[in-house]
Every structure is written in structure tokens, then in C-alpha cells.
Specification:
Layout: H1 2-26, H2 33-42, E1 56-60, E2 66-69, E3 74-77, H3 86-91, H4 99-108, E4 114-118, H5 124-127, H6 130-137, E5 140-143, H7 145-148, E6 160-162, E7 172-177, E8 180-186, H8 194-199, E9 225-231, E10 234-239, H9 248-253, E11 260-264, H10 270-278, H11 281-284, E12 288-292, H12 315-331, E13 339-340, E14 348-351
Parallel strand pairs: 3-4, 4-5, 5-6, 10-11, 11-12, 12-13
Antiparallel strand pairs: 1-2, 1-14, 2-3, 7-8, 8-9, 9-10
The protein binds zinc ion (ZN).
Zinc ion is lined by residues 121, 123, 189, 241.
InterPro entries: RibonucZ/Hydroxyglut_hydro (IPR036866), UPF0173_UPF0282_UlaG_hydrolase (IPR050114)
Keywords: Membrane, Transmembrane, Transmembrane helix
Protein name: MBL fold metallo-hydrolase
């Protein structure tokens, strides 16, 4: 009898501890005053940026959704606006927002003549909305065969540029889209293991055409890329997923000038960042670095982003690791002076060629 009582108490205690753990992992987070100061004081936008409408501008929408606009033509990296909630992506099927809603967001953002929607890999937070956006805007969808297999609620992609390194020894593919020359560079997804890797189809393709609404398992990774954007006004590297292939960026970028680097920092850890930054930040040698994919992509807002829940990362730690590495590397002469810039929802910066 005594043993049964003791056992019952232990079970209740373990359920209690487990519940607390799950609550901490999945509960919503907000910025504290110290995190807010990172945006306003430590890593603010460069002064007067976004004011010059004749420049090449980059507007940020969270995760790795970035709209580049030179006033005449635009390109969009990873059009992801639907941002379904955590409970939806864990327990339900989901689909893109109505195309008219996304078109309205892009119209408000001042989009002009969209040339391409370029997608870094096929997970829902990068690719799910992209076919709908490309078709609606008359743009070319650029990405892996898996990305091409995500239909817009049944409508297949109308114009496509397929990037596929599976049967190739090459590590890059270049294509001109209007005023923008894009080079897709073979890369790797951020480190994801065990059940999460299984759930997210890491290294797996989307084998055939899929039609949302679908559960998260349907949106497998496909292949992952960095995207180099070359434009008369300035050059940008978008490295959205926090993985890397050793020395690939070093050999692909060589002496190319990169003015701005948009760098994925989702869930990076202390024991990983030295290698990660050495194979991404160091070869890019960008003057400005914008961390991306630090936000909670399961919360929607037109006004602000929120820091990721513990299950997806640690915003303050990710920014601190990057800032510390940059400072140390500058002191050691491994990289030139770099400006770390934090962008929030709807923030815009001007891209110009560094001296
Ligand atoms: Zn992913």
C-alpha cells in the first residue's frame, strides 16, 4: 500500500515537472527592455536608410522574407506571410493565406514589377506561400524541384527556374532576373536531428505535387541554398538557414564584394558558432550583417516581430554570439569593420556598394 502511494506521488510529480518543461519550451515570449535596446541602441538601422527611393532597398518581413526593390523591379526571397500558429502547425493541416491578402501586403510594401520569388528551401516557413505569390504577381518561382512541387491550393507554378544539384558536381547556378543576377549556392539546413529531423524531412525531397492544406510533414526540406544577389547598386548574400558546407562559400564568393549579408541565426549554439561564422560571415566579408530567422514565425503581426519560443531558439543569445564573434574577429584582424543591424517587421534599409 505504502509503495503504491509512493509510486502515485512520483507519477504526479513527474507529470508536473514535464508540464513545466513543455510550458517553458512552447510559451510565447516578448522582448524585455534589454532586448528592445538591441534594436534601438546597440544595433540600430543605419541613419537615413530607406529614405532614398532611387536606391536598392531591402524590406524585412520576419523569418527570411526579404523584398528587394530598386524602384522599377523587385525580387522576393522566401515569400512567407501566412505564419500559421504553433498549434496549427503541430496539430492541423494548413495552407497559404488568400492570395489577395498577400498581394495587399506586397502592394502596401510598394512592390514594383516582381521578377522572381527565390526560395532557399522547401519548409513551410520559406516556401509555402511562394507559388501563390509568383503566380499572382506574374513572377518566376526559383528554387528546388521540391519547391516547384508545392501547388497554390491546386494551381501549379506557371513560370519556374529550377535549381538542382543532386546529379551535379557544381555548387552554384546563376540566372538573371531583370535587374538582378541571382546565384544559388549549394548549402545545408541548420543542424536538426532526431525526431525533429524526421518531422521536417531534413534531406528529403517533396516527391510529387502537393496541394495544401497539409500538415507540416508534407513540406520537406528539399535542397538548401544561399542566394547571392548582384545588382548595379549593391550586392547581397542571403544565407537564411544556419547550416553550411565547409569552404563552399569561400570558393564561390572568392573576391566578390558583398555589401550586406542576411544571416540565419535560428537556434545557433555556442559550440557551433565558431565553425558556422568562419564558413559564412568570414568569406562574405560584408560591411553590414542582418541576423534573420530569430523571430517567432508562429505569431503574426504587421507591426512587430516577437522573439522565438524556447523550442525554436534564444534571440538574445543568438545576437550576443554573433556580436561577440564579430568583435573578436575584428580585433584579431580576421574581418574588416562590420556593422550588425537588427531589423524588425517592415523595417527597410538602403543597399549601396561599399568602398
Ligand atoms: Zn527549414
Amino acid at each position: 500500500m505504502k509503495l503504491l502511494k509512493w509510486f502515485s506521488v512520483m507519477v504526479v510529480f513527474m507529470i508536473f515537472v514535464l508540464s513545466i518543461g513543455i510550458y517553458i519550451l512552447v510559451s510565447e515570449r516578448n522582448f524585455d527592455s534589454e532586448s528592445k535596446a538591441l534594436f534601438t541602441e546597440k544595433h540600430p538601422l543605419p541613419p537615413n536608410d530607406g529614405q532614398n527611393t532611387s536606391s536598392l532597398r531591402a524590406k524585412y518581413f520576419g523569418t527570411s522574407t526579404i523584398l528587394f526593390n530598386d524602384g522599377a523591379q523587385s525580387i522576393l526571397i522566401d515569400g512567407f506571410f501566412s505564419r500559421p500558429s504553433l498549434s496549427t502547425i503541430l496539430f492541423r493541416d494548413f495552407e497559404p493565406l488568400p492570395t489577395s491578402d498577400i498581394d495587399a501586403i506586397l502592394s502596401d510594401a510598394g512592390i514594383s514589377d516582381l521578377q522572381t520569388v527565390a526560395v532557399v528551401h522547401s519548409h513551410h516557413d520559406h516556401a509555402m506561400d511562394s507559388t501563390c505569390i509568383a503566380n499572382s504577381q506574374g513572377a518566376i518561382l526559383a528554387g528546388s524541384p521540391s519547391t516547384m512541387n508545392i501547388s497554390c491550393k491546386g494551381e501549379v507554378v506557371k513560370e519556374q527556374f529550377v535549381v538542382d544539384f543532386r546529379d551535379s558536381t557544381e555548387t552554384s547556378m546563376t540566372q538573371v532576373f531583370g535587374n538582378y543576377t541571382l546565384t544559388f549556392i549549394k548549402s545545408k539546413h541548420s543542424p536538426t536531428e532526431g525526431a525533429a529531423a524526421e518531422l521536417l524531412g531534413i534531406g528529403q525531397p517533396i516527391h510529387s505535387l502537393i496541394t495544401p492544406p497539409l500538415g507540416i510533414r508534407a513540406y520537406a526540406e528539399g535542397q538548401s541554398y544561399s542566394i547571392l544577389i548582384e545588382h548595379d547598386k549593391g550586392n547581397v548574400l542571403v544565407h537564411a538557414s544556419a547550416g553550411f558546407l565547409p569552404d563552399v562559400l569561400l570558393s564561390e564568393l572568392q573576391d566578390k564584394r558583398i555589401d550586406w549579408l542576411f544571416l540565419g541565426v535560428a537556434n545557433i549554439k555556442e559550440d557551433y558558432v565558431n565553425d558556422y561564422f568562419a564558413h559564412t560571415v568570414a568569406p562574405a566579408r560584408a560591411k553590414y550583417i542582418v541576423p534573420v530567422h530569430w523571430d517567432d514565425f508562429t505569431r503574426s503581426s504587421s507591426e512587430t516581430l516577437y522573439p522565438a519560443r524556447a523550442i525554436f531558439g534564444d534571440f538574445s543569445l543568438e545576437i550576443e554570439l554573433l556580436a561577440n564573434w564579430l568583435q573578436k574577429s575584428e580585433q584579431q584582424g580576421r574581418i574588416n569593420k562590420t556593422h550588425l543591424v537588427l531589423m524588425n517587421m517592415g523595417d527597410e534599409v538602403s543597399i549601396s556598394a561599399s568602398q
